[in-house]
């Protein structure tokens, strides 16, 4: 499939604008000293300004008015590189620059922020057209510190990667070590950033189709200061490029191997005095250099069948590489404009090619079933003949016998398909049949292919059916029957706050293919007449609230059937020995034992039965425990010496809260108390009616005597 990818893919152009600028702390991007200069001269109008000043830097037969699809804007020193910012960088400038850039580049066409990343002073933004958002996925970011041996972020790099359709992009922005003689340190930092940048699923920057690297790389020019400034005055840029450190290291293969950078046919961008066109006039008197650079690299596609290998960076068209004249920093910003090849997939054609490819590859289970048409077994001689014939198709790795058949497994599916060609051959006068073990292997692979076909559809939460009046969309197959008409990922209620916007008419036309007619805006007087002529409907009155909640209906009475009148009633009593501690209870067994059964056929007999059972002369009551035996009522025992009124409590002392002996209340004299009945367990059946116990001396402040209890039935 990879070798034949040209049979089911097609390419289209994608325009990318990449800018880099060292803003020297970012303090002057809204300076009123040069309010006539705008950042639009760098990001939007640079092709137009270049056409006016240096038209030789532009290409012919290229439409520069076509809008940019992706903006990648990198900054260095977006905050002051002092000690406090290096340890704890502020993100205020990042947010302010992001809002400011989005407003600027959306002057002619709408752009949204895909994502951004900051490492102390290094910051990178990715802006895209809204119509491309549903086709972008797998966005990732990473950063690498190289300052102070990797401990500080004053130097280092940041990266943003994503996949658009079937192409992967990674953008890198870096700030390398400064100094005329620190070239080896810059080389080492480049390799450190390139090796340490990692993304999910183990991806590195070298695993992407397109790598675009920008930033303040700080490579200098190995020439005396005076000669460099003199060459700049005369525009002898080729002389300066011959001594450029970055070009020398690239030619040696030390850094940026395989990257492409177009000639720097503009004045060096470093170092200027603020708010003027003079190079450095300070005590250091630094040599001017092209420190701000932009490079690009494309991974070569594999070799096609019948074609030569593709050349590196084939399909990249650089339309502009120039600097802008913004004087609010000691660096000048640089912009590169590219048209790159974007690979799209034709799903219908891909399925056709896939069917052709898998028909040649064979099934994943390379096993064939061999048997005779007469379903008879095979002897050793027949088996050797079969192996000799089938073995000519490929390498046999396993042979199994299942009933009357033989299962032969080959090392590849192609060999299994070759063995199936032997079907129907005659061996020893018997017809041999050869079939694949998995006969529906093509259908299985096609189902798996359909499940994996998710990259052609927009990554959005909603999709609407294609309307019939859009011919280029309505002719699609069922697999592409849904298409994005409304970019629902970018609604205001989305979880991405940076992507809150309304899709403009131009983007809607690009997605749907329909042109939207624009009606002239109504005049104010027309609005007034329309409002006066149209009567606003009255608002409906809210329903009145009831004074009290409705009463709850009473629960329905249980419908229980009445018991039969003439049904005999049985009383079940267990017979326990005398003095047993077990109490009377009903039997829970269907056929109880040791139970006296007596029946009553009417209420009168039942009453008589109960009275006889509860009488003292009943034979059943004799076996009951003493507390349960029926007794005759007896008058309570009383003592004539016992006062009828309870004793009055003794008066308390004056100070009831004191614990001293003087405050102790007086103890009343002893008094005789009435006799108290004995406990239940100490009574016997014979003396349970008249037996009393000797009186017990009363305690101080004792309660009145309690009369004995009588146990009645």
From TrEMBL:
The annotated regions of Basic and acidic residues compositional bias extend over 516-544
User: What keywords does the record list, in alphabetical order?
Assistant: Membrane, Transmembrane, Transmembrane helix
Q: Which GO terms describe its cellular component?
A: presynapse
Which InterPro entries does the record associate with it?
Endo/exonu/phosph_ase_sf, IP5, IPPc, Nucleotide-bd_a/b_plait_sf, RBD_domain_sf, SYNJ1/2_RRM
Domain of life, per lineage: Eukaryota
Question: Which portions of the sequence form the region Disordered?
Answer: 496-713
For the Inositol polyphosphate-related phosphatase domain, which residue ranges apply? 12-346
Question: What is one Gene Ontology biological process annotated in the Swiss-Prot or TrEMBL record?
Answer: synaptic vesicle endocytosis
Which named protein is this?
DgyrCDS5010
Q: Which organism is it from?
A: Dimorphilus gyrociliatus
């Amino acid at each position: 499939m990879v070798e034949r990818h040209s049979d089911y893919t097609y390419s289209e152009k994608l325009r990318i604008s990449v800018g880099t600028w060292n803003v020297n702390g970012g303090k002057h991007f809204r300076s009123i000293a040069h309010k006539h200069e705008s950042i639009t001269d760098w990001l939007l109008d640079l092709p137009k300004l270049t056409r006016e000043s240096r038209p030789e830097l532009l290409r012919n037969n290229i439409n520069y008015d076509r809008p940019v699809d992706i903006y990648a804007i990198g900054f260095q020193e977006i905050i002051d590189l002092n000690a406090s910012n290096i340890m704890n960088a502020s993100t205020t400038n990042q947010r302010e620059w992001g809002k400011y850039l989005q407003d600027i580049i959306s002057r002619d066409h709408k752009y949204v922020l895909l994502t951004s990343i900051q490492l102390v002073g290094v910051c990178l933004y990715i802006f895209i057209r809204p119509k491309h958002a549903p086709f972008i996925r797998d966005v990732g970011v990473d950063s690498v510190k190289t300052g102070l041996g990797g401990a500080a972020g004053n130097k280092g790099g940041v990266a943003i990667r994503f996949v658009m359709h079937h192409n992967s992009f990674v953008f890198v922005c870096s700030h390398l070590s400064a100094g005329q003689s620190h070239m080896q340190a810059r080389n080492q930092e480049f390799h450190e950033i390139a090796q340490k940048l990692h993304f999910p699923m183990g991806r590195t920057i070298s695993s992407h189709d397109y790598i675009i690297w920008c930033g303040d790389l700080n490579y200098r020019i190995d020439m005396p200061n005076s000669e460099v400034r003199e060459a700049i005055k005369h525009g002898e840029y080729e002389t300066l490029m011959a001594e450029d450190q970055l070009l020398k290291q690239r030619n040696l293969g030390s850094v940026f191997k395989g990257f492409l950078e177009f000639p720097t046919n503009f004045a060096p961008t470093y170092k200027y005095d603020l708010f003027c066109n003079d190079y450095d006039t300070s005590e250091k008197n630094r040599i001017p250099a092209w420190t701000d650079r932009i490079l690009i690299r494309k991974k070569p596609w594999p070799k096609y069948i019948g074609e030569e290998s593709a050349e590196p960076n084939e399909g990249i068209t650089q339309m502009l590489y120039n600097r802008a004249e913004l004087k609010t920093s000691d660096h000048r910003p640089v912009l590169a404009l590219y048209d790159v090849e974007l690979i799209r997939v034709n799903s219908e054609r891909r399925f056709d090619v896939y069917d052709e490819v898998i028909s040649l590859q064979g099934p994943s289970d390379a096993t064939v079933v061999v048997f005779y048409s007469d379903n008879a077994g095979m002897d050793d001689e027949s088996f050797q003949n079969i192996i000799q014939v089938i073995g000519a198709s490929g390498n046999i790795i396993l042979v199994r016998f299942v009933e009357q058949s033989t299962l032969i497994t080959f090392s590849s599916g192609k060999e299994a398909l070759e063995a199936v060609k032997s079907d129907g051959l005659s061996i020893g006068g018997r017809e041999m049949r050869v079939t694949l073990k998995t006969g529906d292997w093509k259908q299985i692979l096609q189902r798996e292919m359909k499940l994996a076909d998710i990259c052609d559809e927009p990554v959005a939460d909603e999709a609407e059916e294609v309307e019939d009046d859009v011919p280029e969309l309505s002719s699609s197959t069922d697999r592409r029957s849904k298409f994005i008409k409304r970019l629902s990922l970018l609604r205001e209620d989305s979880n991405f706050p940076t992507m809150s916007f309304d899709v403009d008419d131009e983007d809607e036309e690009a997605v749907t293919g329909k042109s939207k007619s624009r009606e002239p805006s109504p005049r104010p007087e027309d609005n007034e007449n329309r409002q006066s002529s149209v009567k606003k409907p009255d608002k409906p009155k809210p329903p009145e609230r009831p004074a009290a909640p409705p009463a709850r209906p009473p629960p329905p009475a249980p419908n229980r059937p009445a018991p039969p009148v003439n049904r005999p009633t049985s009383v079940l009593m267990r017979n326990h020995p005398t003095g047993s501690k077990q109490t009377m209870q009903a039997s829970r067994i269907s056929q109880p034992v040791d139970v006296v059964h007596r029946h009553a056929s009417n209420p009168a007999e039942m009453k008589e039965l109960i009275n006889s059972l509860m009488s003292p002369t009943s034979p059943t009551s004799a076996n009951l425990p003493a507390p349960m035996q029926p007794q005759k009522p007896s008058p309570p025992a009383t003592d004539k010496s016992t006062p009828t009124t309870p004793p009055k409590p003794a008066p308390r002392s004056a100070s009831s809260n004191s614990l001293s002996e003087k405050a102790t209340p007086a103890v009343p004299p002893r008094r005789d108390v009435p006799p108290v009945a004995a406990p239940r367990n100490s009574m016997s059946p014979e003396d349970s009616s008249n037996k009393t116990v000797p009186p017990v001396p009363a305690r101080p402040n004792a309660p009145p005597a309690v009369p004995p209890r009588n146990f009645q039935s």
